[in-house]
Amino acid sequence: MLFFNFLIAFMVGGIICVIGQLLMDVGKLTPGHTLVTLVVAGSILDGLGLYDPLIDFAGAGATIPITSFGNALTHGAMAEAEKHGWVGVLTGMFEVTSSGISAAIVFGFLAALIFKPKGKVD
Amino acid sequence: MDPQEYQQLEQQITPPTPYVKNVLKAFLVGGLICTIGQAIMYLYIIFFDFTDKTAGNATTATMVFIAAVLTGLGIYRKLGAFAGAGSAVPVTGFSNAVVSAAIEGRTEGMVLGVGGNIFKLAGSVILFGVGSAFFVALIKLILVTAGVVKW
Protein backbone atom coordinates (compact mmCIF):
# COMPACT_ATOMS: atom_id res chain seq x y z
CA MET A 1 0.00 0.00 0.00
CA LEU A 2 2.83 2.36 0.92
CA PHE A 3 4.66 1.46 -2.28
CA PHE A 4 1.47 2.09 -4.24
CA ASN A 5 1.21 5.63 -2.80
CA PHE A 6 4.82 6.38 -3.75
CA LEU A 7 4.17 5.09 -7.27
CA ILE A 8 1.10 7.33 -7.69
CA ALA A 9 3.01 10.37 -6.37
CA PHE A 10 5.77 9.59 -8.87
CA MET A 11 3.37 9.15 -11.80
CA VAL A 12 1.16 12.19 -11.16
CA GLY A 13 4.09 14.50 -10.30
CA GLY A 14 5.94 13.26 -13.37
CA ILE A 15 2.94 13.84 -15.63
CA ILE A 16 2.50 17.42 -14.40
CA CYS A 17 6.19 18.06 -15.17
CA VAL A 18 5.72 16.50 -18.62
CA ILE A 19 2.85 18.95 -19.26
CA GLY A 20 5.27 21.75 -18.33
CA GLN A 21 7.95 20.32 -20.64
CA LEU A 22 5.47 20.08 -23.54
CA LEU A 23 4.37 23.69 -22.98
CA MET A 24 8.03 24.66 -23.29
CA ASP A 25 9.04 22.42 -26.23
CA VAL A 26 5.86 22.19 -28.30
CA GLY A 27 4.10 25.38 -27.15
CA LYS A 28 7.40 27.33 -27.39
CA LEU A 29 6.73 29.08 -24.07
CA THR A 30 9.56 30.43 -21.93
CA PRO A 31 10.03 28.72 -18.53
CA GLY A 32 8.48 31.80 -16.91
CA HIS A 33 5.34 31.62 -19.07
CA THR A 34 5.13 27.86 -18.46
CA LEU A 35 5.18 28.21 -14.67
CA VAL A 36 2.64 31.05 -14.76
CA THR A 37 0.35 28.91 -16.95
CA LEU A 38 0.59 26.00 -14.51
CA VAL A 39 -0.09 28.21 -11.47
CA VAL A 40 -3.18 29.70 -13.12
CA ALA A 41 -4.30 26.20 -14.13
CA GLY A 42 -4.01 25.02 -10.51
CA SER A 43 -6.01 28.01 -9.36
CA ILE A 44 -8.83 27.41 -11.87
CA LEU A 45 -8.91 23.67 -11.09
CA ASP A 46 -9.42 24.51 -7.41
CA GLY A 47 -12.19 26.94 -8.32
CA LEU A 48 -13.92 24.04 -10.07
CA GLY A 49 -13.33 21.86 -6.99
CA LEU A 50 -11.05 19.44 -8.87
CA TYR A 51 -7.67 19.96 -7.18
CA ASP A 52 -8.59 18.60 -3.73
CA PRO A 53 -9.58 15.20 -5.13
CA LEU A 54 -6.25 15.13 -6.99
CA ILE A 55 -4.36 15.77 -3.72
CA ASP A 56 -6.36 13.02 -1.97
CA PHE A 57 -5.41 10.70 -4.82
CA ALA A 58 -1.77 11.61 -5.45
CA GLY A 59 -0.48 13.18 -2.21
CA ALA A 60 2.88 14.84 -2.79
CA GLY A 61 2.48 14.17 -6.52
CA ALA A 62 -0.11 16.96 -6.47
CA THR A 63 1.18 19.17 -3.62
CA ILE A 64 4.84 19.48 -4.75
CA PRO A 65 4.32 20.79 -8.34
CA ILE A 66 3.80 24.57 -8.66
CA THR A 67 0.14 24.00 -9.65
CA SER A 68 -0.52 23.45 -5.94
CA PHE A 69 0.65 27.03 -5.28
CA GLY A 70 -2.25 28.36 -7.35
CA ASN A 71 -4.52 25.84 -5.67
CA ALA A 72 -3.43 26.88 -2.15
CA LEU A 73 -3.87 30.61 -2.86
CA THR A 74 -7.36 30.07 -4.28
CA HIS A 75 -8.24 27.66 -1.47
CA GLY A 76 -7.34 30.19 1.24
CA ALA A 77 -9.20 32.99 -0.56
CA MET A 78 -12.34 30.89 -1.04
CA ALA A 79 -12.35 29.53 2.53
CA GLU A 80 -12.24 33.06 4.00
CA ALA A 81 -14.72 34.37 1.42
CA GLU A 82 -17.17 31.71 2.59
CA LYS A 83 -16.91 33.05 6.17
CA HIS A 84 -16.48 36.81 5.70
CA GLY A 85 -17.69 37.67 2.20
CA TRP A 86 -15.63 39.65 -0.30
CA VAL A 87 -13.09 40.95 2.26
CA GLY A 88 -12.14 37.34 2.87
CA VAL A 89 -10.91 37.01 -0.71
CA LEU A 90 -8.01 39.28 0.30
CA THR A 91 -7.49 38.25 3.92
CA GLY A 92 -7.53 34.53 3.18
CA MET A 93 -5.22 34.58 0.19
CA PHE A 94 -1.98 33.58 1.95
CA GLU A 95 -3.60 31.56 4.76
CA VAL A 96 -2.70 28.15 3.33
CA THR A 97 0.32 28.88 1.18
CA SER A 98 2.39 30.88 3.66
CA SER A 99 4.95 28.15 4.36
CA GLY A 100 6.31 27.88 0.82
CA ILE A 101 6.81 31.63 0.35
CA SER A 102 8.11 32.36 3.86
CA ALA A 103 10.52 29.40 3.66
CA ALA A 104 11.78 30.55 0.25
CA ILE A 105 12.33 34.12 1.53
CA VAL A 106 14.10 33.03 4.74
CA PHE A 107 16.31 30.42 3.10
CA GLY A 108 16.96 32.70 0.13
CA PHE A 109 18.18 35.41 2.47
CA LEU A 110 20.32 32.99 4.48
CA ALA A 111 21.77 31.51 1.27
CA ALA A 112 22.68 35.01 0.08
CA LEU A 113 24.58 35.51 3.34
CA ILE A 114 26.45 32.19 3.06
CA PHE A 115 27.02 31.49 -0.64
CA LYS A 116 28.88 33.61 -3.19
CA PRO A 117 27.60 34.02 -6.78
CA LYS A 118 29.12 31.38 -9.03
CA GLY A 119 28.72 33.26 -12.32
CA LYS A 120 26.71 32.12 -15.30
CA VAL A 121 29.17 29.62 -16.78
CA ASP A 122 30.08 26.35 -15.09
CA MET B 1 20.80 37.37 -48.05
CA ASP B 2 17.07 38.05 -47.78
CA PRO B 3 15.15 37.30 -44.56
CA GLN B 4 13.60 34.13 -46.00
CA GLU B 5 16.97 32.64 -46.88
CA TYR B 6 18.24 33.58 -43.44
CA GLN B 7 15.31 31.84 -41.79
CA GLN B 8 15.91 28.69 -43.82
CA LEU B 9 19.58 28.71 -42.91
CA GLU B 10 18.73 29.23 -39.25
CA GLN B 11 16.35 26.27 -39.30
CA GLN B 12 19.00 24.06 -40.89
CA ILE B 13 21.62 24.95 -38.31
CA THR B 14 19.42 24.82 -35.18
CA PRO B 15 19.43 21.24 -33.86
CA PRO B 16 15.91 19.73 -33.69
CA THR B 17 14.33 19.69 -30.21
CA PRO B 18 14.64 16.13 -28.78
CA TYR B 19 10.96 16.03 -27.69
CA VAL B 20 10.83 12.43 -26.46
CA LYS B 21 14.11 12.64 -24.56
CA ASN B 22 13.10 15.91 -22.88
CA VAL B 23 9.71 14.52 -21.88
CA LEU B 24 11.27 11.37 -20.41
CA LYS B 25 13.84 13.35 -18.43
CA ALA B 26 11.17 15.75 -17.13
CA PHE B 27 8.94 12.82 -16.15
CA LEU B 28 11.69 10.92 -14.31
CA VAL B 29 13.19 13.85 -12.41
CA GLY B 30 9.84 15.51 -11.67
CA GLY B 31 8.37 12.21 -10.51
CA LEU B 32 11.43 11.50 -8.37
CA ILE B 33 11.23 14.91 -6.67
CA CYS B 34 7.55 14.29 -5.85
CA THR B 35 8.42 10.82 -4.52
CA ILE B 36 11.01 12.36 -2.20
CA GLY B 37 8.32 14.82 -1.11
CA GLN B 38 5.98 11.91 -0.39
CA ALA B 39 8.68 10.25 1.73
CA ILE B 40 9.28 13.45 3.73
CA MET B 41 5.51 13.76 4.22
CA TYR B 42 5.39 10.24 5.72
CA LEU B 43 8.33 11.11 8.01
CA TYR B 44 6.37 14.09 9.38
CA ILE B 45 3.21 12.00 9.81
CA ILE B 46 4.94 9.02 11.46
CA PHE B 47 7.57 10.73 13.67
CA PHE B 48 6.20 14.24 14.35
CA ASP B 49 2.46 13.64 14.75
CA PHE B 50 1.41 15.66 11.71
CA THR B 51 -1.86 14.79 9.95
CA ASP B 52 -2.42 14.29 6.23
CA LYS B 53 -3.57 17.92 5.93
CA THR B 54 -0.88 19.67 8.01
CA ALA B 55 2.09 17.61 6.75
CA GLY B 56 1.82 19.25 3.30
CA ASN B 57 3.02 22.66 4.49
CA ALA B 58 5.92 21.22 6.50
CA THR B 59 6.91 19.11 3.50
CA THR B 60 6.88 22.15 1.21
CA ALA B 61 9.12 24.08 3.62
CA THR B 62 11.54 21.14 3.85
CA MET B 63 11.73 20.73 0.08
CA VAL B 64 12.32 24.49 -0.25
CA PHE B 65 15.18 24.22 2.26
CA ILE B 66 16.83 21.29 0.45
CA ALA B 67 16.57 23.11 -2.89
CA ALA B 68 18.06 26.27 -1.31
CA VAL B 69 21.15 24.34 -0.19
CA LEU B 70 21.51 22.60 -3.57
CA THR B 71 21.16 25.98 -5.32
CA GLY B 72 23.83 27.54 -3.13
CA LEU B 73 26.21 24.68 -3.92
CA GLY B 74 25.52 25.10 -7.66
CA ILE B 75 24.05 21.59 -7.96
CA TYR B 76 20.48 22.62 -8.79
CA ARG B 77 21.59 24.48 -11.90
CA LYS B 78 23.16 21.30 -13.26
CA LEU B 79 19.97 19.40 -12.44
CA GLY B 80 17.99 22.09 -14.26
CA ALA B 81 20.15 21.82 -17.36
CA PHE B 82 19.45 18.07 -17.42
CA ALA B 83 15.79 17.89 -16.40
CA GLY B 84 14.19 21.05 -17.84
CA ALA B 85 10.62 21.28 -16.56
CA GLY B 86 11.24 18.25 -14.32
CA SER B 87 13.20 20.44 -11.93
CA ALA B 88 11.45 23.75 -12.68
CA VAL B 89 7.82 22.74 -12.08
CA PRO B 90 8.12 21.28 -8.53
CA VAL B 91 8.22 23.74 -5.62
CA THR B 92 11.97 23.13 -5.47
CA GLY B 93 12.20 25.05 -8.77
CA PHE B 94 10.38 27.98 -7.17
CA SER B 95 12.89 27.86 -4.31
CA ASN B 96 15.75 27.71 -6.83
CA ALA B 97 14.41 30.82 -8.60
CA VAL B 98 14.19 32.79 -5.35
CA VAL B 99 17.51 31.63 -3.89
CA SER B 100 19.58 32.02 -7.07
CA ALA B 101 18.21 35.55 -7.61
CA ALA B 102 19.08 36.42 -3.99
CA ILE B 103 22.63 35.07 -4.31
CA GLU B 104 23.21 36.82 -7.65
CA GLY B 105 21.97 40.08 -6.13
CA ARG B 106 24.59 39.95 -3.41
CA THR B 107 27.15 41.83 -5.51
CA GLU B 108 24.88 44.91 -5.47
CA GLY B 109 24.52 44.91 -1.68
CA MET B 110 22.05 43.51 0.82
CA VAL B 111 19.16 45.97 0.46
CA LEU B 112 19.19 46.94 -3.22
CA GLY B 113 20.82 43.74 -4.50
CA VAL B 114 19.43 40.87 -2.45
CA GLY B 115 16.24 42.63 -1.34
CA GLY B 116 15.49 44.15 -4.73
CA ASN B 117 16.23 41.07 -6.82
CA ILE B 118 14.98 38.19 -4.67
CA PHE B 119 11.64 37.97 -6.55
CA LYS B 120 13.06 38.89 -9.96
CA LEU B 121 12.38 35.39 -11.34
CA ALA B 122 9.68 34.12 -8.97
CA GLY B 123 7.71 37.37 -8.91
CA SER B 124 5.64 36.53 -11.98
CA VAL B 125 4.56 33.22 -10.42
CA ILE B 126 3.44 35.01 -7.25
CA LEU B 127 1.73 37.85 -9.15
CA PHE B 128 -0.25 35.62 -11.50
CA GLY B 129 -0.98 33.08 -8.76
CA VAL B 130 -2.44 35.79 -6.52
CA GLY B 131 -4.22 37.52 -9.40
CA SER B 132 -5.77 34.29 -10.62
CA ALA B 133 -6.76 33.24 -7.08
CA PHE B 134 -8.41 36.63 -6.57
CA PHE B 135 -10.57 36.38 -9.68
CA VAL B 136 -11.42 32.70 -9.20
CA ALA B 137 -12.49 33.30 -5.58
CA LEU B 138 -14.42 36.43 -6.57
CA ILE B 139 -16.28 34.65 -9.38
CA LYS B 140 -17.12 31.78 -7.05
CA LEU B 141 -18.34 34.25 -4.40
CA ILE B 142 -20.60 35.96 -6.95
CA LEU B 143 -21.93 32.63 -8.21
CA VAL B 144 -22.65 31.47 -4.63
CA THR B 145 -24.34 34.78 -3.80
CA ALA B 146 -26.46 34.44 -6.94
CA GLY B 147 -27.38 30.92 -5.83
CA VAL B 148 -25.88 29.19 -8.88
CA VAL B 149 -23.38 26.99 -7.00
CA LYS B 150 -22.58 26.05 -3.39
CA TRP B 151 -19.19 26.42 -1.62
From TrEMBL, chain A:
The chain crosses the membrane at residues 6-23, 96-115. Keywords: Membrane, Transmembrane, Transmembrane helix. InterPro entries: Spore_V_AE, SpoVA. Signal peptide: none annotated. Pfam families: SpoVAC_SpoVAEB. This is Stage V sporulation protein AE.
TrEMBL record, chain B:
The chain crosses the membrane at residues 26-48, 55-76, 82-103, 124-149. Pfam families: SpoVAC_SpoVAEB. Keywords: Membrane, Transmembrane, Transmembrane helix. It comes from the Bacteria. The keyword Membrane applies. PANTHER family: STAGE V SPORULATION PROTEIN AC, STAGE V SPORULATION PROTEIN AC-RELATED. NCBIfam families: spore_V_AC. This is Stage V sporulation protein AC.
